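Translate sequence into structure tokens.
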Amino acid sequence: MSALATGWAASRRRLRVGFAALTLLVALLPLVFRTPYALSTLILIGIYSIVTTGLCLLMGYAGQVSLGQAAFFGLGAYASAVLTTRLSWSPWIAMVAAAAGTGLLAYVIGIPIFRLRGHYLAMATLGFGAIVRITMNEWRAVTGGPTGLPGIPRLSIGGLALNSDLTYYYLVWAVGLVALALARNMVDSRVGRALRAIHGSEAAAESLGIDVAQLKLQALVTSAVYASVAGSLYAHYMIFVSPGAFDVDASVQLVLMAAVGGIASIWGAPLGAAVVTLLTLALREIVPLITQHGSGEHQIIAYGILLVVIMIFVPEGLTPTLARATQRLSRRLATVRPRWLPWR
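Result follows.
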């Protein structure tokens, strides 16, 4: 029992050290990357990290496939945009209302959707995403249709308007770190252990008295709220939203972020978001130079190739793989240290 307690305490210490290191990295990055383009990229990585964190909870821990996460992302963005531009709501109140409404919608659609399994569940979530995007395109009186909705106000805290990329960067990453900490606590709780049991076998989890249906809904609602908050931050940063930002390609991109970072690793969300966002930006620059055509039609191909490579060579994602490599390197250095340190 003492050994288990010791291992648990060591694990908690590593988590605290990792979170402190990530916080320090987030605080110092703007000192290195100061250009508006670099800060804008870091802001987008932070926004996508929030969505990916929720997706990891749903897919990596609850084991429920979702190809419609961009729909929740878009609902949060459009709800904040409509409430602030059409009804003149406070952006912060609009963000909370958007998250609550998106979570409620996720709960309502989750009841029939989770009656499905496997490929049928994936197709149902994909269909939900298609319905949301069609609504964004066709409900022109409210959403502005294909041309989008401009004039979204900036966020402000008291009398401080978050007009600069630097202030918005710290806001986005503050929300992202809080979201990461909450997700980590959820994973380490009894709920997290129950979700892992559901992922392993729903029948076995039910035999242990776990309310499988309720916990799957809870995971879906949590991931939807995360996506909605990220969508609101995206809308108030871009001050413009259009349906094209929340299409099927966006859902595939979010799934790829989760897979690259480690779909069953909360810590992998920022890493996966960073890798895929930087890859997307690189494709936009490189592909037109090679093909003399736009890069949009090539992005989905590149995503597919990267996903296949990840699934073959590092199926658990980059974060668990890097963690194991670091542990092996630490053990190896511990064995050779006495040979080259004169004071040992």
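Note: Residues 2-32 form the longest helix (31 residues).
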